[in-house]
C-alpha cells in the first residue's frame, strides 16, 4: 500500500528541523549518503557515497587514487563546515578524526524514533563532525 510510505507528521517535522540545522552551519556541508538534504538547505552537493564506492572498489588505477586524494585533501584542509555521515560508516574518510570532532549522538535529531525510511535499509544521518579548532583534542 503506497499510503504506508507517507512520512508521519513527526517525521516531516524532524526532516524540516534537520534541514534548518544544515542551513545554520557556516560553510559547505558534506552529506555523502543524503546529498539532497544539503541541496534542500541551500548548500552545494557533492558525490553520493555509492558513486564514490563504485569508483574506489572498481578501479585500481588513476581514478581511484584521484578520488581518494580529493577526499583526503578536503578533510585535511577542513573544506567543510560539517560532515554528516550515517552511523559508523567512515569508509574512505581516513583521517577524519584528526581534523574533525564528532559531536554528541543526539546532535542531529531531537528524537530517535523519527526520520527513518519506511522501507529498505534503516539508515538516516547519524554522525555530525565539525572541524577541530586549534587547541582541541588532536587539532
Write up this protein.
The chain is α+β, with helices and mostly antiparallel strands and 139 residues long. It contains five helices and four strands, in the order αβαααβαββ. It has helices at residues 9-24, 35-40, 49-58, 62-76, 96-99; strands spanning 29-30, 82-86, 100-102, 125-131. The chain has a four-stranded mixed beta sheet with strand order 1-2-4-3. Helix 3 (49-58) packs across helix 4. The chain is globular, with a radius of gyration of 16 Å. The model has no long low-confidence stretch (mean pLDDT 88).
Distance between the termini: 51 Å
Rg (C-alpha, Å): 16 Å
Number of strands: 4
Beta-strand percentage?
5-15%
Strand order of the largest sheet: 1-2-4-3
The class by helix and strand makeup works out as alpha+beta
Averaging pLDDT over every residue, what do you get? 88
Instruction: Please give the largest β-sheet.
Output: 4 strands, mixed
Instruction: Return the string of H and E elements.
Output: HEHHHEHEE
Helix tally? 5
Helix content bin: 25-40%
Which residues form runs of ≥5 with pLDDT under 50?
A: none
Categorize the overall geometry. globular
Summarize the structure.
The protein has 139 residues and is α+β, with helices and mostly antiparallel strands. It is 37% helix and 12% strand.
Amino acid at each position: 500500500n503506497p499510503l504506508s510510505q507517507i512520512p508521519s507528521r513527526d517525521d516531516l517535522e524532524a526532516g524540516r528541523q534537520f534541514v534548518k540545522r544544515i542551513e545554520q552551519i557556516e560553510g559547505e556541508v558534506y552529506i555523502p549518503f543524503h546529498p539532497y538534504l544539503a541541496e534542500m538547505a541551500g548548500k552545494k552537493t557533492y558525490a553520493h557515497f555509492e558513486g564514490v564506492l563504485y569508483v574506489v572498489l572498481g578501479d585500481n588505477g588513476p581514478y581511484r587514487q584521484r578520488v581518494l586524494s580529493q577526499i583526503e585533501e578536503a578533510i585535511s584542509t577542513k573544506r567543510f563546515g560539517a560532515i554528516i555521515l550515517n552511523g559508523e560508516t567512515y569508509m574512505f574518510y581516513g583521517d577524519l578524526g584528526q581534523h574533525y570532532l564528532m559531536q554528541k549522538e543526539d546532535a542531529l535529531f531531537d528524537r530517535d524514533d523519527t526520520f527513518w525510511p519506511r522501507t529498505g535499509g534503516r539508515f538516516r544521518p547519524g554522525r555530525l563532525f565539525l572541524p577541530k579548532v586549534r587547541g582541541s583534542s588532536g587539532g
